[in-house]
Prior knowledge:
The chain is an alpha/beta fold. The protein has 20 helices and 14 strands. It is globular. α3 links the parallel β1 (23-28) and β2. It has a five-stranded mixed sheet with strand order 2-1-3-13-6. The chain has a four-stranded mixed sheet with strand order 9-10-8-11. It has a three-stranded mixed sheet with strand order 7-12-14. The site of beta-D-galactopyranose has 12 residues, from loops.
Amino acid sequence: MTRISVALAAAGLMGATLAQAGEVEVLHWWTSGGEAKAAAELKAMMQAKGHTWKDFAVAGGGGDAAMTVLKSRVVSGNPPAAAQIKGPSIQEWAREGALANMDAVANANKWDDLLPPVIASGLKYEGHYVAAPVNVHRVNWLWANPEAFKKAGAKVPTTWDEFFVAAEALKKAGVIPVAHGGQNWQDFTTFESVALGVGGADFYKKALVQLDPGSLKSATMEKVLTTFKKVKGYTDANAPGRDWNLATAMVIKGDAGMQLMGDWAKGEFLAAGKVPGKDFVCVAAPGTAKSYTYNVDSFALFRVKGADNQKAQQDFAQAIMSPEFQEVFNLNKGSIPVRLNMNLAKFDSCAKTSATDFVASSKGGSLVPSIAHGMAVPSATEGAIKDVVSQFWNDDKLTATVVMDRLVAAVKSSK
Ligand code: GAL
């Protein structure tokens, strides 16, 4: 026996400690450099509490592959304790009766007081907490390599007109203007930033959140689609199928000038030892400085058997919302804490801008949920409209008019 266990045994505590040690199996898709560093912090925190961490990582940015694997595990009656699930999908799983009630943890730790109400309500089903949030990612960012811009004599763009001027200059300088990965969630990540920048927050909400047919087929949507398609002309021939982090690596190396991506991309820059404002620049996607597309990562807690594993699950939910975890995880992940009133002293200027803009856009009515990242519409509708947008991106014969009809039809048939 070690000295500590002798002392615990003497105090009659060892049995109690062991009885509470359980296993927590966690499904996530955080496998890129920055993501894995952030996930490791969560693992370490659970192990420090004496629990066993069973890693259930399913690679694939955006999580499509992870969701497919999750379905088969739940259907076979063997869900993980926690799975990275967001937005309306939380409600879909709760309706199936698959999720556990986390009210005891949430009430004891005052989650209602520590979360923005709009976010808290998405984590509850019929008034009960069934998921715990880790962060707020901003999706509408543009990442740029200042060296590449210098070489091209170009200015980091803040409008779509400037974006195409910069893209031309980068091209002439022999730099790939836009680093892109041709996967449908990445296509849509670009598309929704274009929609927000060209159409504005009200258009975005009406067309892509409320799915109003008159907005899905409109002069504004036509402009959005043609602008989106124009971006493709500045991507390279190897873009199809490329993972998002490999696209970020192109900007890190200076092979490409810019990338439209959420701030998990910052996690890659940081993991590569790059310094914001010096080695890379973050600016809001063109035309979206006053708006904010949010993507909140959260873990839904599934019903698990055994008191030890249930305790481990509750400790997991509690750890996630602790200020210590919210700080260290988000410093690595590129996002900002979802817990309110946190001290952001250790965070960089991109994170501070994100935090300020989150509050300002929320007050100004221009805080919008990301469709590409599962925050806005039911998963069937999301899948259907993503497919249409990617068809348009990939097929140069498709016209905007045909695509608008397909968007309206896709929404209708997915309901
Ligand atoms: C998002 C997720 C982020 C990040 C990204 C790329 O959907 O919210 O945390 O991991 O996918 O994998």
